[in-house]
Design a protein that fits this description.
heterodimer; A: 112 residues; mainly beta; B: mainly beta
């Protein structure tokens, strides 16, 4: 059974600081997704990582994927208050299934 | 990205009644649709996977007679919560994929409150 874990679960950080969120998964997969969720809202797609070594950047966020280590990271550079949200990674379960399994989520709070 | 429309966005119903939630892919044909449930401050939990024209596949612990899923066409799936109880109150989110290993797109979510 595919399990996806994120850490930390909660992150409180000051504006201007850098931090990394980690996403570990338990079985082979080469497709990983990052989403943002604001309170009371659905998911917003941030990044789609489709191969080992993939790195994508958008604004202050950068995501990477290491399929051999079964690890993805979401790096935040010079955080601003608008980045406050919950971030989820999700992994494709392989082998004749379309399932997308979500990580535990990281609730990010950025304060002045 | 592609658009998935979910309706209603918010519903309040009385205990014992049934509620239907619709999920439509607006600009693509979704061979597979997924239904998730999310409790406050928790992650998304996959309830079931539905393919057009066939019975849904439910995850372990999800009552198929309580959560009826119909995927009648390549652009529409419905989730009916039957005989709803307060513990069914949750945020329900649908997702659709055009095919295996394609990106999943999410509906806006439905906040269900059972009183």
């Amino acid at each position: 059974e595919l399990k996806v874990e994120q850490n930390p679960l909660f992150l409180s950080m000051q504006e201007g600081k850098n931090y990394t969120i980690y996403c570990n998964y338990s079985t082979t997969s080469d497709r990983l997704y990052w989403y943002r969720q604001d309170p009371g809202k659905s998911l917003e797609s941030l990044f789609v990582l489709l191969s080992n070594g993939a790195v994508k950047q958008e604004g202050r966020l950068m995501a990477s994927l290491d399929t051999k280590a079964r690890l993805s990271t979401l790096h935040i550079t010079a955080a601003v208050h608008d980045l406050s949200a919950t971030y989820f990674c999700a992994v494709d379960a392989l082998y004749n299934t379309d399932k997308l399994i979500f990580g535990t989520g990281t609730r990010l709070q950025v304060f002045p | 990205g592609a658009v998935v429309s979910q309706h209603p966005s918010r519903v309040i119903c009385k205990s014992g009644t049934s509620v239907k939630i619709e999920c439509r892919s607006l600009d693509f044909q979704a061979t597979t649709m997924f239904w998730y449930r999310q409790f406050p401050k928790q992650s998304l939990m996959l309830m079931a996977t539905s393919n057009e024209g066939s019975k849904a596949t439910y995850e372990q612990g999800v009552e198929k007679d309580k959560f009826l899923i119909n995927h009648a066409s390549l652009t529409l799936s419905t989730l009916t919560v039957t005989s709803a109880h307060p513990e069914d109150s949750s945020f329900y989110i649908c997702s659709a994929r055009e095919g295996q290993n394609t990106e999943a797109f999410f509906g806006q979510g439905t906040r269900l409150t059972v009183v």
